[in-house]
Amino acid sequence: MRRPYALAALTLFVIEVLIAVFVRDGIIRPYLGDVLAVALVYVVSRAVTPLRLVPALAVTLTIAFAIEFAQLLGLLGALGLRDNQVARIVLGGVFDPMDLASYAAGVVLIVVVEWGLRRGR
């Protein structure tokens, strides 16, 4: 386990929970939350696998896009989970093309942070 990524994952998870519980707006919760969700998936993948930057980003973006397109196809309904609150939190319930842009912004943020950290070493 790579501890810096695990610590980042824990931190991002706490931030995501705080946003989900306390923020009710049209920008932070839907868009910043999605940016941070992509970052969370990324740091978890880096914490528990030997993946390097580019492969981890590819896996992260694939997961994010797959979840969003599953929303477009109505996967929760097909699985009988439309009313399951946990499934709706994890997988979302409604397709929004702006979410795809948020995921891409998350990947850009990850690259900038990783690049900055590498330059600082």
Keyword list:
121 residues, 0% strand
Overall description:
Helix content is 79%, strand content 0%. With 121 residues, it is an all-alpha fold. The protein has one domain (3-120). α2 (28-48) crosses α3, α2 packs across α6 (97-120) and α3 (53-72) runs antiparallel to α6.
Gist?
The chain is an all-alpha fold and 121 residues long. It has helices at 3-22, 28-48, 53-72, 75-78, 85-91, 97-120.
Rg estimate, integer Å: 15 Å
The N- to C-terminal Cα distance equals: 20 Å
- The coarse silhouette is globular
Annotation field: number of helices: 6
Roughly what fraction of the amino acids lie in strands? under 5%
Strand/helix succession: HHHHHH
Sheet/helix structural class: mainly alpha
Low-confidence stretches: none
Question: Major beta sheet, specifics?
Answer: none
Which range best describes the helical content: under 10%, 10-25%, 25-40%, 40-55%, 55-70% or over 70%? Answer: over 70%
Give the mean pLDDT: 94
Describe the secondary structure blueprint for this structure:
Layout: H1 3-22, H2 28-48, H3 53-72, H4 75-78, H5 85-91, H6 97-120
Helix pairs in contact: 1-2, 2-3, 2-6, 3-6
